[in-house]
Write a structure and sequence with these properties.
By secondary structure, the chain is mainly alpha-helical. It contains 18 helices and no strands. The radius of gyration is 20 Å and the shape is globular.
């Protein structure tokens, strides 16, 4: 669990380094807002679409192997950004970063579904969510300090090199992970059976909605704080870093509370869906506060959003791990993440275009608020009562829900 959490922590430190450096890179390399938006978006061109084959590879060849290969690739891409000097080179490296990081969530979810019972998935996913949401906090704060002292390139070189150290302990644990993987059985669903189930598209829509707001904030929050609200680079790093810490702690606490509720006889369905509903409605309110509120109101809205986003994070993967089970979780999460991370393509690029056209962030926040509300349709209406799906009947071989 520690190493699974650590790899997603590293995942988010590395992907969040460019947003922290964006305003410095613009001046150094003469990049405009549209180009910065394209660089933020480019990561997801590969990250989103490669998730499906990565999920299949994780189930076919072992999630432990695919995860190690992915980290090697994305850490190398991070290092190379530190020596790139052209927009084209940066664009190619962002594509390479997305390719490597696509291994993270399908592989981690596959392993969790194999080794963690339903009553512990909230805590397990809360720990993992704490790690990947703590990543931007460390990346923004430490990266901002490194950039202020040694220039923006230093953060890419340092973070990429440190990432490779994870491979050392993982090489010792990988054999245990492989031994825990169950053998395939006749009841394992085909890809087409997974694709036909409405719940898959519900979790995909829900993740797209939450990811749009999350990636909008991850990509543009540093620039918003500096350009729209007048903070210095160091002040921005401290403020944004603190906000990400709040999100991470909220994830950990929410996962524990949900598991405690379930162990005392509560419904997993009611617990996870209630949190999702509150998070999406609350996120819309927070976006509007940041768009139109005074400086104190905007900062309060920013921190409240982190609390709500953190609270919803355990359910994002626990819900699909419950529905898909160990037999299909790798492919399910791969497809869900492909759908959900299309928001990573749309949000940074669209935001860059809006800022380029208007000179402000107001409309971008209003768009994020509207998209957040679509999460209610996905998580609440399209996802059935949470229980592991029985993929085949005795005679028909069709997808049905278990009792």
């Amino acid at each position: 669990m520690f190493l699974l959490a650590a790899v997603l922590f590293i995942n988010y430190v590395d992907r969040g380094t460019m947003p922290t450096a964006a305003h410095l890179m613009q001046g150094d390399l003469s990049l405009n807002d549209a180009q910065i938006g394209a660089l933020m978006s480019a990561f997801f061109w590969t990250y989103a679409f490669v998730q499906i084959p990565v999920g299949w590879l994780a189930e076919r060849y072992g999630a432990h192997r695919v995860l190690a290969a992915g980290l090697t690739l994305w850490a190398s891409a991070t290092i190379l950004v530190g020596v790139a000097h052209t927009f084209t080179a940066l664009l190619m490296l962002r594509l390479l970063l997305g390719l490597g990081e696509s291994a993270g969530f399908p592989c981690v979810s596959k392993i969790l579904a194999e080794i963690v019972p339903v009553k512990g998935l909230g805590t397990a996913n809360g720990i993992v969510a704490f790690a990947y949401q703590f990543g931007p906090a460390v990346g923004t704060y430490a990266g901002g300090l490194l950039m202020a002292q040694f220039g923006w390139r230093s953060a890419f070189l340092v973070f990429g090199a440190l990432s490779l150290l994870w491979l050392l302990p993982w090489s010792r644990v990988a054999a245990q992970v492989r031994a825990a993987q169950p053998a395939a059985d006749d009841d394992s669903p085909t890809l087409w059976m997974i694709l036909k189930h409405p719940a898959l598209w519900g979790t995909g829509l829900g993740l797209f909605s939450s990811n749009y707001v999350f990636y909008f904030m991850l990509s543009w929050l540093p620039s918003y704080l500096v350009r729209e609200r007048g903070y210095s680079t160091i002040e921005m790093a401290q403020l944004a870093g603190s906000a990400y810490v709040v999100m991470a702690v909220s994830s950990l606490v929410a996962g524990w509370v949900i598991d405690r509720f379930i162990r005392r006889g509560g419904s997993a369905n009611g617990a996870y869906k209630s949190v999702m509903a509150a998070a999406h409605i609350g996120a819309a309110v927070c976006m509007l506060s940041m768009a139109m509120g005074s400086k104190p109101v905007a900062i309060a809205g920013m921190f409240l959003y982190q609390v709500l986003c953190g609270a919803a994070s355990p359910g994002v993967y626990a819900m699909c791990q419950i529905l898909a089970g160990a037999r299909a979780s790798g492919r399910w999460v791969g497809i869900q993440n492909s759908l959900g991370n299309l928001a990573g393509i749309a949000a940074p690029w669209l935001t860059g275009m809006i800022i380029q056209s208007t000179g402000h962030f107001t409309i971008a926040f209003m768009v994020a608020a509207a998209v957040s509300m679509f999460g209610l349709i996905g998580w609440i209406w399209m996802v059935p009562k949470l229980a592991e799906l029985r993929w085949k009947t005795a005679n028909e071989g069709v997808v049905v829900g278990s009792a």
